[in-house]
Amino acid sequence: MEPQKYKRDIALLRFKNFDINMIHILGYNESNPYKVGKIKVRDIETNEERIVNLNDANLKKYRQIIMRHQQEIKNVCLANKAIYTLAKTEVSVENFISRELIHMGMLR
Fold first, then answer.
1. What are the beta bridge partners of residue 23?
2. 27 lies in which domain range?
3. pTM of this structure
4. Are the C-beta atoms of residues 63 and 28 closer than 8 Å to each other?
5. pLDDT of 21 strictly over 80
6. Which of 6, 21, 54, 64 has the fewest Cβ atoms surrounding its Cβ within 10 A?
């Protein structure tokens, strides 16, 4: 999602005095790409496909971009008094519910 869209949407929800709980879902391969070389990737939201060349330098840059993106979302949430949590797809749903949703105050 484009940063300007979620920034605007979170600010609007905060303006309307909603309590905001953001769950950022990140697939294992998104945070830990494992293939090196030319690979085809597909954007799950747009279905757009691209060929990318993953080498050590690109993987390092990619990981930095992912970390910066996560931090930006956290900062937007913090600025808008929203609760943020990261849901990694390699963590079971049961584990996520029993730990993170309780920690977020969504469940007791």
1. 85
2. 3-103
3. 0.73
4. no
5. yes
6. 64
Task: Assess if residue 31 is contained within a domain.
Answer: yes
Strands (E), 3-107: 21-26, 37-42, 49-54, 83-88
Collapsed DSSP state (helix, strand, coil) of residue 22:
strand
Three-class DSSP category at 9: helix
- Euclidean distance between CA atoms 86 and 101, whole angstroms: 11
pLDDT one-digit tens code per residue, 34-53: 677 888 888 877 899 989 88
Could you give the number of structural domains in the chain? 1
Domain-embedded: residue 32? yes
Give pLDDT tens digits for 68-100. 989 998 998 899 888 888 888 888 888 877 787
Question: Is 75 among the domain residues?
Answer: yes
